[in-house]
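Page header: ASSEMBLY MODEL / two components / 795 residues total.
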Amino acid sequence: MIAEAGLAALWLAAALALLQLALAWFGLVGGKDDLLSAMRPVAVAQGMLTAAAFLLLITLFVQSDMSVALVATNSHSMKPWLYKVAGTWGNHEGSMLLWVTVMGVAGAAVALFERALRRDTHMATLGAQAAISLGFYAFLLFASNPFARLDPAPPDGQGLNPLLQDPGLAFHPPTLYIGYVGLSVAFSFAVGALLTRRVDAAFAKAMRPWVLAAWIMLTLGITAGSYWAYYELGWGGWWFWDPVENASLMPWLAATALLHSATVLATRDALRAWTIMLAVVAFSMSMVGTFLVRSGILTSVHAFAVDPQRGTFILGLLALYIGGALALFGFRIGTVREGAQFELVSRETMLVVNNLLLTVILGLVLIGTLYPLMTEAFGHKVSVGPPYFDRIVGPITLVLVIAMAGGPLTRWRKDRAKAVGGRMLIPAIILLAAAIAVSALAWGRIGVLPFLGLIIAAAVAVGSVAPLWKRNLRRTPLFTWGMVIAHLGCAVSLAGMASDSAFTVEKLVAAKPGETISTAGWTLRFDRIVPVAGDNWTALQGDMTVWRGNGAPIAIHPQSRFFTNPPTTTTEAALLTRWNGQLYVVLGQEAERGRWQLRIWWKPFVTLIWLGGIMIALGGALALLGRERRGWMMKIRKRSALA
Amino acid sequence: MKAKHQRLILALVALAALIGAALLAASALKDEAAYFYTPSDAKTKGVEPGKAIRLGGMVVKGSLHRAADGVTVRFDVTDNKATVPATFTGIAPDLFREGSGVVAEGAFDRSGTFVATNLLAKHDERYMPRELEGMTYNETTHEMGPEMGKEK
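Prediction written out in full:
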């Protein structure tokens, strides 16, 4: 019954999306702005129906209803409760339902909360959102029905991939999807503005909070995914240039560029066409990512199933929406007035540089990700790995980060090069001092990129805080605080990355219980191997004691886990976090003569990578809050003026 | 006139950046992209020692030996046309075993042995390195077969 109700909710939502599109059409063609008030409840109902369908699917997973094919192939009745819930989106159909749900709810939010947009643009935006949703409803209903029944129902399910049985699954995909699909709102805004010829500062002001919200979630999702991969895979790395990681990075790069160009458009009414283009590109990257992941064209931990038919379907949607938006862009961009001018030395120019570099990185990552597919079409099997990405993305990112520190220190519209140089003086001195300090500390022991990364991070950290210099901190707007904290977060994250690759100490041994191992100032005593058991797994656990110098001993317990449904082994690394780094211990396989393989890393300041990511998201949240608060203040002032 | 000048400069800078990026990508791809080799590719094309590549194939049955230090393994990788010796120091993935598919990251040393710094085996029974698709191990093993990588 529940499955049928869920399917019915989806069909109904799809019908409402069609109605929403029709209302937008008649409203725009007939010039009837009042149809907007009819569209609002339709969009809200559509959002509620998708949410209901999603909740019903979660219910089916929690009840372990094996008569539903999706539950039977991806769940197991013995699984812990949390993973029954999170397992809902740990598969193709469920994750596509999550995608559609986010899209529906985002559309409802635009209908409910957007007040700044002109009525006709608002209608066109909701119409565009409905048009994109329709394609994905079709994909869900015709090619990926999550509610399909299985007859006869099997006695129990096949279980969830144990790598996914981790609290990370509860957090990482939903945040990432909210970010990914939240960008559809920016896309719809851009289409709406083009259709109604309203590409101006007011439009950018209305669009920016939506972009910001999606971008915050995307940042959190990527940060969480990176940390999850770091501790779950047991490889000690935090980014692998896996095509699916790239698929989440590309929309982030585009959204970051969009965020900055939208600020230029909102404040200075410049970069009109470019901002529209970026809004189209950002969500296009989300769809390309979905295509790469869901078509099975790439192999990865994230690719759930190989199904060429689905790939073709998504490719069709991709061509339709991206092609449609670009065609509209081509036809209408001529009617967009030229934006305001600016001088060569100005914040606008700095933000253009920022956009250029972000776009270049995006392009290079896209080429690296698609190149294997393109060559394979010509019969060559080629893979592009970390060496390519490290070599090109590393240096450009360093330049980007330097420009990031310079931007806020440059005035809008017109500035003097000398004055900007003067403001950059202190960061430049820090750069020099850091270069001397790092050279004295580790000359010859670290590579060029980590070296540059460390000193640039130090200089940029100071440069990021510099906009607060000589300001009354209590009167500094939240938006400025947000920018400072986000930029500082980039420097912090960069410092963590550079420190991890420059100073990580690794030790690999085969040890017998009772032996003691020393590395990087830590001593580890391997006490014993004990068998332990969880809800749906058994494990061999290494009981170990570690201490640093003369410090207090701490017990750690790395495990090697065996899951029965499906039969798989996973590594549970033991992590010990200190303010200045992380100790990372992995229990390997049994070697001869009663020895066990142990891999020990001491990673100085590695946690800064994710701390930086959280700071970036926090900065975004402050900026968002600052805008909202200003809106509330205005309302309050208006009311008191009336009273 | 002045505004036009500045637009021109910006456009030229943008163009220069794009061309620079394209050249960078092309040179990086040329160096790094021929990154995946099968043992017969390595034998026929030749890979210079020290160049980072991925080597993919099947671990030959009976070739897997563990060294005395307990963390080094030696094995042969084959694609049924050619076979190359390889070593790996580290914790091998759980699904790395004889007769099973493997993608090894690393470089050849001067003696022609592949020194792997990382081994990628399948994560679970549904995962198969894409490069190994269509490759099967001759001896009948229950591990591998052409149906790998597909949903059951």
